């Protein structure tokens, strides 16, 4: 468990470093002025929030140090991490919608955008379900018991969809950007930027597999 968790921690950190470096080095850096540099916040915030931070929150209860004593502090930490993940994802959506609107670019027409917006919508419902079922003291225990399997299943589903959205978004950005004009090589020629961004996608997938390995092992679940 701890080796897999350490692997997930390292992979998650690498994902964040890679996505920041990619956009800072090849995509021109960051700004909030409606330019392409504002768009660069979108992949950084989505990978950091919807994939890495969400994955960390998902495996929190698998750590044995969370099994003893009161569960409430860990519930609050789990809720806080997922809320931060959600806020980063929403900010990432604001960045891309604002960039598209200022450039008169259509929104929500690609498969990537459909997966991404569906993931955030499910995330919204998931967080509200968790708040109502597990944090409100007036919630009946029977309702908590019935809601738990749905909450766990939705959590894994959202995480997988977040990975799919991140990887498809990286691929879409490379296809749109590396067309062989404006001094860039074609994506099919696999220039250095394409190699680096493809590796980012691979890191995200491997990070996802490590997190899912932790979530799927029954022996690593918190005892009732």
TrEMBL record:
This is Lysosomal membrane ascorbate-dependent ferrireductase CYB561A3. Its cofactor is heme b. Homodimer. It is found in: Late endosome membrane; Lysosome membrane. Keywords: Electron transport, Endosome, Glycoprotein, Heme, Iron, Lysosome, Membrane, Metal-binding, Oxidoreductase, Translocase, Transmembrane, Transmembrane helix, Transport. It comes from Polyodon spathula. Residues 7-216 form the Cytochrome b561 domain. The chain crosses the membrane at residues 5-24, 44-64, 76-97, 117-138, 150-170, 196-215. Its main location: membrane. InterPro entries: CYB561/CYBRD1-like, Cyt_b561/ferric_Rdtase_TM. Transmembrane reductase that uses ascorbate as an electron donor in the cytoplasm and transfers electrons across membranes to reduce iron cations Fe(3+) into Fe(2+) in the lumen of the late endosome and lysosome. Reduced iron can then be extruded from the late endosome and lysosome to the cytoplasm by divalent metal-specific transporters. It is therefore most probably involved in endosomal and lysosomal cellular iron homeostasis. It catalyses: Fe(3+)(out) + L-ascorbate(in) = monodehydro-L-ascorbate radical(in) + Fe(2+)(out) + H(+). Its EC number is 7.2.1.3. PANTHER family: CYTOCHROME B561-RELATED, LYSOSOMAL MEMBRANE ASCORBATE-DEPENDENT FERRIREDUCTASE CYB561A3. It is a multi-pass membrane protein.
């Amino acid at each position: 468990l701890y080796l897999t968790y350490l692997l997930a921690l390292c992979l998650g950190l690498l994902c964040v470093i890679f996505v920041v470096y990619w956009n800072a080095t090849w995509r021109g850096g960051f700004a909030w002025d409606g330019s392409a540099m504002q768009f660069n916040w979108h992949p950084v915030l989505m990978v950091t929030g919807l994939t890495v931070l969400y994955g960390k929150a998902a495996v929190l209860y698998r750590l044995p140090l969370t099994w003893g004593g009161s569960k409430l502090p860990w519930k609050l930490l789990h809720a806080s991490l997922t809320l931060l993940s959600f806020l980063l994802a929403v900010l990432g959506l604001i960045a891309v919608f604002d960039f598209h609107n200022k450039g008169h670019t259509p929104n929500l027409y690609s498969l990537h955008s459909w997966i991404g917006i569906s993931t955030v919508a499910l995330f919204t419902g998931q967080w509200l379900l968790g708040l109502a079922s597990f944090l409100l003291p007036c919630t009946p225990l029977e309702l908590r018991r019935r809601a738990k399997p749905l909450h766990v299943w939705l959590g894994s589903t959202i995480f997988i969809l977040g990975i799919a959205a991140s990887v498809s978004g990286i691929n879409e950005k490379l296809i749109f950007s590396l067309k062989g004009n404006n001094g860039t090589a074609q994506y099919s020629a696999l220039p250095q930027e394409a190699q680096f961004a493809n590796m980012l996608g691979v890191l995200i997938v491997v990070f996802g597999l490590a997190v899912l390995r932790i979530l799927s092992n029954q022996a690593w679940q918190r005892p009732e």
